[in-house]
Amino acid sequence: MYGKCGLLEDAHKLFDRMPHKDMVTWTTLITAYSQHDRPNDALVLFPQMLLFGFSPNQFTLSSLLKASAVVGPSDGRGRQLHAFCIKWGYYSNVYVGSSIVDMYARYGLMDEARFAFDGLLIKNEVSWNALIAGYARKGDGESTLLLFWKMLRQPFWPTHFTYSSMFSACAATGALEQGRWIHAHMLKTGLKLIAFVGNTLLDMYAKSGSIDDATKVFNRLLKPDVVSWNSMLTGCAQHGLGRDTVKRFEEMLRMGIKPNQITFLCVLTACSHSGLLSEGLHYFEMMKEHNLELEVAHYVTIVDLFGRAGLLNRAEAFIKEMPIKPTAAVWGALLGACRMHKNMELGTYAAERVFELDPHDSGPHILLSNIYASAGRWRDAAKVRKMMRLSGVKKEPACSWVEMENAVHMFVANDVSHPRIVEIRRVWEEVSQRIREIGYVPDLNHVLLFVDQWEREARLQHHSEKLALAFALLSTPPGSTIRIKKNIRVCADCHSAIKFASRVTQREIILRDTNRFHHFRDGSCSCGDYW
Q1: Cβ atoms within 10 A of the Cβ of 395, count?
Q2: Which of 44, 137, 235, 483 is paired with 518 by a 20 to 30 Å CA distance?
Q3: What does the radius of gyration of the chain's CA atoms come to, in whole angstroms?
Q4: Distance in angstroms (rounded) separating the CA atoms of residues 227 and 260
Q5: Burial of 182 (0-12, 13-18, 19+ CB in 10 A)
Q6: Where are the beta strands (DSSP E) in 103-166?
Q7: How many helices (H) and strands (E) does the chain have?
Q8: Cα separation of 215 and 229, whole Å?
């Protein structure tokens, strides 16, 4: 009774007073600690139980494995428990085996989790859900989907936990069509949209580029909690809907939902990406009114807020006045703003601070090199690149991709590897000619190489997102929406070109980069050219 009510100290005192203890008594206390987030206390009891001559049963081992999954793999107790299960003949037990699968999955050791799963003679919904959830947490969308389809061919029906994991996996990869199919499958099974599944479904649609569907899901939730609101606010912020984010936040406060640190981070990010300077500073101060502790991420968004607005001196002063020591992320936000506003002196200073704190991150090196190149200081840019080579810092290649009929087509700048590259380049040349006729002018400042003007323009026309767009135009029906993903921030020239392209092709083009979604319609972008 005490254990189930969470009165663990009272439960342990009663346990200590008992003159005679049996296996049920030990298991009850171990389970109570495991279920109430006291994993170390549960694990400590196990060797004591063995010293008293008791042998664990399947319920004892399941609770211990659950506790070990929370503690993590560092102390090796999870593997010891696994070995104990084998020694005592519980390895093939479905309850113990499912707990082993879940433990390794929570460790992120998916090969071990899969091995344990495949070794189960009998599987149940728990073992399937444990492995699916593990792949989803790792962001391995392909393995998650394959396992889900395999589960459907078995005599098991997906549960709310299964669908929640599937939506999380689709959100991580931006797999909108697969997410829609799984949503439809859930509706066909008759499962109700309960809170935690609705939250992951909402998040999936927002992160996959369909903020309209995310809004519909949010509006259908009977009692949206703070997680629901945070997911909706994050979606609005990522899609460039700064004003909508602020309105929804104010509505949330009126409804009596108490915001947390994540809520304010969503709102501050939206203000930063939409140029809402006064609103952002207002909500930053509001955090103190709600007695919420400011974290590094909140300071980063304020530096970003000042920086995007061109107030670089205020951003620098804010950093120097921070009550905590600035991290690489804080200086990195200032460096990015200096690149945006071409402030070489302050950018160099910010880059030096980043190099001291995080010398292995390629991003700041690239930003500083680009700042020098934009100013025509080619020798300094070359020095930064040389420093990267000597330090072993490698730049992640920029790439863009589109999904067509369950196949991913990836492109890099000046790509010649795609089997339809001749057609792709021809399509882009036609689009390029049409957008020039209505006002597009290539921005040669984004070719950061010491080459002549003709070669600069040629290189600019073969950026990865332009090739991806051309392929999508070539491969999809007229009038359909085009969705492109990019692994770094979209460059200003490609942003401008795609705006014009959305007008001449009469297509909605949704581009997701590392920062946000850009919705291009009829020659304009949802970001309002402020990103």
Answers
A1: 13
A2: 137
A3: 27
A4: 10
A5: buried
A6: none
A7: 27, 6
A8: 11
- In the chain, which residues have pLDDT < 70? 1-19, 21, 26, 29, 33, 37, 374-376, 378, 393, 444-459, 531
Tokens of 286: 């509001």
CA dist 243 and 264 (Å) reads 15
What pTM value is reported for the model?
A: 0.85
Q: What is the residue type of 281?
A: L
Q: What pLDDT, on a 0 to 100 scale, did the predictor assign at position 7?
A: 52
Helix (H) or strand (E) segment spanning residue 519: strand 517-521
Sheet-wide strand order for 524-525: 407-412, 399-404, 482-486, 509-512, 517-521, 524-525
- Among 513, 508, 500, smallest CA distance to 437 is for 500
How confident is the model at residue 444, as a pLDDT?
65
How would you label 327-366 residue by residue, b for 16+ Cβ within 10 Å and e otherwise? bbbbbbbbbbbbbbeebbebbbebbebbbebeeeeebbbb
What gap in Å lies between CA 42 and CA 27, rounded to an integer? 9
Amino acid symbol at 67: A
Burial 46-71 (b: 16+ CB within 10 A, else e): beebeeeebebbbbbbbbbbbbbbeb
Q: Which helix (H) or strand (E) holds 520?
A: strand 517-521
Write down the pLDDT at residue 3. 46
CA distance 531 to 527: 6
Query: Rounded to an integer, what distance in angstroms lies between the CA atom of residue 2 and that of residue 469?
Result: 62
Tokens of 304: 């970003």
CB 431 within 8 A of CB 388: no
Rounded (10°) CA dihedral 221, 223, 226, 227: -40
Please report the pLDDT score of residue 378 as a whole number.
67
Nearby residues of 124 by Cβ (< 8 Å), 6 or more positions away: 94, 98, 156
pLDDT at 18: 66
Alpha carbons within 13 A on the beta-carbon side of 123: 20
The span from the CA of 354 to the CA of 338, in Å, is 13
The H or E element spanning position 521 is strand 517-521
Those residues with Cβ within 8 angstroms of residue 521's Cβ, 6 or more apart along the chain or in another chain? 502, 508
Q: pLDDT at position 451, please?
A: 43
Q: In sequence order, what are the residues at sequence separation of 6 or more whose Cβ sits closer than 8 angstroms to the Cβ of residue 501? A: 431, 435, 469, 507, 509, 520
AA letter at 516? R
Choose among 161, 104, 158, 97: nearest CA to 134. Answer: 104
